[in-house]
Amino acid sequence: LALVDASWIAGSLRIGRGDDDSAFREDISSLRVMFLDTEDSLVVRKLQAKRIVGAPFVVTQTWVTGEQPPNLPSVPANDSNGPFTDITGVLRVPSLLVRLRNNKKGDKIDELVGQRVGKTKDQCIEALLEDNMDVPKGAKLDYHKRAGYVEFEDGVALFVNMPSANSGTSRRGYPNKFLNEGKSMTWFLREHEWKSGKSRLA
User: What does the pLDDT look like over 65-89, one tens digit per residue?
Assistant: First the structure.
């Protein structure tokens, strides 16, 4: 009971939050509910909004009671393609608004060439955008997590399958072939990304 600052007041048991509360950390939460004034599918997806029967889309936020509430979520500007604050309170900047060569400490790309920067896509992106002036401190990049690339304003970061000793024994879904002594490689694009060579990415 001490963990939840329990006490008897006027014959009733009152429960608060003790300084050392950890056992009930996930059980005592605050909830914030906001109604969206748009039904834009992209906005709904980015803010993880849900529709309640007979009502508009609803965005919810939760946090541990007693801790600092997250920033209010915001609807992406500029036809759903602008920066926005997600339900965790983090500012998200769309990758198409970010320039790779806009680093206040020099060219980050040249610095990272040949270096091991991480095992996950997020770790690689964070290393690439360190000190990037298009991404404010505390903000994160908004991009398609499952795509094999991240498209920026001035370039594209590709995530490719590197050749290994076992490459010949197992077939990958999207094989990358290295040609010309490793100076060139093949890369897979879906038709809706390619658009007969007329897409922005192409």
Answer: 878 999 999 987 665 678 999 999 9
